[in-house]
Amino acid sequence: MQHSVWTQEEVNSVEKTHVEAKGVADYIAYNTVKFARWAFDTASFYKWGPVTTDKVLNRAIFLETVAGVPGMCAGMIRHLRSLRRMDRDHGWIHT
User: What pLDDT tens digit does each residue of the chain (95 aa) get?
Assistant: First the structure.
């Protein structure tokens, strides 16, 4: 399946929108995401100086490294559980 190709006019016609938080849960979720973005920008030095290719690559590598941790931990826990019980886990993490 191919991705559609946007014309420059279609790209320029996209408008940013934002829906205000409507309650405690929305407020907490919104501020948590803002804090996570700020922390990630700070940790990857993305906000200081001009954006260069090296900064973008470092940011992408950092993000992929962090994103791989939960799956690696789950796989290791499952493997250790299999060793402790001495039975096969069939190599599949059920979600």
Answer: 456 788 888 888 988 888 888 999 999 999 999 998 888 888 777 778 888 888 888 888 888 887 888 888 888 888 888 888 888 777 666 66
Both tokens of 10, joined, read 């279609």
SS (H, E, C) 35-78: HHHHHHHHHCCCCCCCCCHHHHHHHHHHHHHHHHHHHHHHHHHH
Residue with tokens 């973005």: 37
Q: Which amino acid does the sequence have at 8? A: Q
Query: Is there a contact between 58 and 49 (Cβ–Cβ < 8 Å)?
Result: no
| Residues in Cβ contact with 22 at an 8 Å cutoff, skipping those fewer than 6 apart | none
